[in-house]
């Protein structure tokens, strides 16, 4: 019998965590016992900002609102009901947001079967497709905590111009926007100038912890989700957060932290098929951006299914997640995970946030800052101002231009094999695709093909979306990563209204800025540019599929 089934299950409010005790017991000393002895459960439930050390205390004081924001969020319910009624004729909801501002609503609406168009890209083809979809029936939720996110500002400008070009007056166009931002942000002022609806979020909650704030609830409610149920689920779990026992969020956090201290610092996140869709993508940005800094961290690896390559390994903690299990069902959905987490979505959000904060205590890092995120942004701004750097491909094969380090093989299969062979026993490969995640969706298959061929953890991220999640880990976490960046030719560009650049130029600058940030760390970096996207993706998949482990 596996440790998952033979060990105790820790449960509260319908959320169950299996296998955590066995992970904790694999350490020389119990991480769980040390956390309890230090009073961490009660301190965290009480929002004690001293838990992560004196250097983190100032940040933590203004970032611990997530512990009970679900209670304050009830104040939004009347406003959301009124807003939903007022905009009932606008039945196509578009969410323009990045990172934590978009990932939670996407999980909520996918899980509960409600339609939501998430626009978290600068790819001109993907933006153009969104602009051309039911424009007259569209309400755009522009979500940005700081109010200065370049992607989100560009989306707002593009939609504003599209509404005006469709013959709307400025007053009519303003009605098609709902702005979600922090009080006092530049976006709040812009919203007033536009005549847009404004919903202010909890300022004491960081973006990646904001699932149960206005950032998660506004687009979900407009899409038809009964968001009060999510708040009820979180509230039911909250009563267990200060407890030493029967605290599944503590069990999960202790397991994550214990595994990382035992060199199992990669976490495979796998849906078990029991009704929660996409939680891995949300947890990925939460864990990576919270823990990946100061040379340490936990690398989340979102795996497509329990049977997909990359779900296990000597340095991998395998974690499945899902909804409530029927009596007699075995957790894991066919996988043999180390830990399984099952329960309602609202409780899942709060539990993973709590567990990530606990893992931060174990690792000795500040889980609320993101010190390396601005690096790629600053590089992007410089490139937009000065122009893209001149680059010459190492060689061209079919529809793919290959930009490889000196000394790398001169053929596509060889250079991919070279990249995989350099991973070593503790490395990982990050595939970063600056493409259209719908039109070029097949590119995501690279993750499993390369994981199969390399036998090491492989992550996949759509750019620039991943810059707001795993991008922090790439720069601030353990420097054992290798990087495969995939870019694509732009067949038809799109202007960013009011700016001296196009979406295609912005996308290219973001890719180049991130390359500069990674190159400065002297880690293996390979860029593949698809001169024809469809042909290039097909060629790349064939090459990856022909590799042998």
Automatic annotation (TrEMBL):
<comment type="pathway">
    <text>Carbohydrate degradation; glycolysis; D-glyceraldehyde 3-phosphate and glycerone phosphate from D-glucose: step 2/4.</text>
</comment>
<dbReference type="InterPro" id="IPR046348">
    <property type="entry name" value="SIS_dom_sf"/>
</dbReference>
<keyword id="KW-0413">Isomerase</keyword>
<dbReference type="Pfam" id="PF00342">
    <property type="entry name" value="PGI"/>
</dbReference>
<dbReference type="GO" id="GO:0016853">
    <property type="term" value="F:isomerase activity"/>
</dbReference>
<keyword id="KW-0312">Gluconeogenesis</keyword>
<dbReference type="InterPro" id="IPR001672">
    <property type="entry name" value="G6P_Isomerase"/>
</dbReference>
<keyword id="KW-0324">Glycolysis</keyword>
<comment type="similarity">
    <text>Belongs to the GPI family.</text>
</comment>
<protein>
    <recommendedName>
        <fullName>Glucose-6-phosphate isomerase</fullName>
        <ecNumber>5.3.1.9</ecNumber>
    </recommendedName>
</protein>
């Amino acid at each position: 019998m596996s440790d998952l089934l033979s060990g105790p299950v820790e449960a509260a409010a319908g959320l169950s965590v299996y296998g955590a005790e066995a992970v904790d017991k694999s350490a020389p000393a119990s991480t769980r016992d040390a956390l309890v002895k230090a009073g961490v459960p009660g301190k965290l439930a009480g929002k004690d900002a001293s838990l992560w050390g004196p250097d983190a205390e100032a940040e933590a004081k203004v970032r611990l609102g997530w512990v009970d924001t679900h209670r304050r969020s009830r104040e939004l319910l009347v406003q959301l009901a009124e807003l939903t009624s007022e905009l009932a004729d606008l039945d196509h909801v578009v969410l323009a947001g990045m990172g934590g501002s978009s990932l939670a609503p996407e999980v909520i609406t996918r899980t509960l079967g409600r339609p939501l168009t998430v626009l978290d890209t600068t790819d001109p083809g993907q933006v153009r497709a969104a602009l051309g979809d039911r424009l007259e029936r569209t309400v755009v939720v522009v979500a940005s905590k700081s109010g200065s996110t370049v992607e989100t500002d560009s989306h707002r400008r593009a939609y504003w111009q599209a509404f005006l070009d469709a013959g709307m007056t400025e007053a009519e166009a303003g009605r098609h926007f709902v702005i979600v931002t922090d009080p006092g942000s530049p976006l709040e002022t812009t919203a007033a100038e536009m005549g847009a609806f404004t919903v202010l979020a909890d300022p004491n909650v960081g973006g990646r912890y904001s699932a149960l704030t206005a950032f998660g609830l506004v687009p979900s409610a407009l899409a038809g989700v009964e968001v009060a149920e999510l708040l009820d689920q979180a509230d039911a779990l909250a009563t267990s957060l200060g407890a030493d026992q029967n605290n599944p969020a503590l069990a999960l956090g202790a397991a994550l932290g214990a595994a990382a201290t035992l060199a199992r610092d990669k976490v495979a996140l796998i849906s078990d098929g029991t009704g929660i869709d996409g939680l891995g993508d949300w947890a990925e940005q939460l864990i990576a951006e919270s823990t990946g800094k100061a040379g340490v961290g936990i690398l989340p690896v979102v795996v497509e299914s329990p049977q997909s390559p990359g779900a296990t390994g000597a340095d991998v903690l395998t974690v499945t997640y899902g909804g409530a299990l029927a009596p007699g069902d075995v957790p894991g959905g066919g996988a043999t995970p180390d830990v399984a987490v099952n329960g309602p979505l609202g409780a899942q959000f709060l539990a993973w946030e709590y567990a990530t904060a606990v893992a931060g205590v174990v690792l000795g890092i500040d889980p609320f800052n993101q010190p390396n995120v601005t690096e790629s942004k600053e590089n992007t701004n410089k490139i937009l101002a000065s122009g893209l750097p001149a680059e010459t491909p190492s060689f061209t094969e079919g529809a793919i231009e290959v930009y490889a380090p000196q000394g790398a093989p001169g053929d596509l299969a060889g250079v991919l094999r070279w990249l995989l062979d350099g991973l070593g026993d503790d490395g990982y490969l990050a595939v970063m695709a600056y493409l259209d995640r719908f039109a070029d969706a097949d590119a995501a298959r690279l993750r499993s093909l390369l994981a199969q061929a390399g036998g090491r953890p492989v992550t996949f991220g759509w750019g620039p979306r991943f810059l707001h999640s795993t991008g922090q880990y790439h720069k601030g976490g353990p420097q054992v990563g290798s990087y495969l960046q995939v870019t694509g030719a732009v067949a038809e560009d799109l202007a960013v209204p009011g700016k001296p650049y196009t979406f295609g130029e912005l996308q290219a600058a973001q890719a180049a800025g991130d390359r500069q940030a990674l190159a400065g760390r002297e880690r293996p970096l390979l860029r593949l540019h698809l001169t024809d996207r469809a042909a290039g993706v097909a060629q790349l998949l064939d090459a990856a599929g022909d590799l042998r482990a």
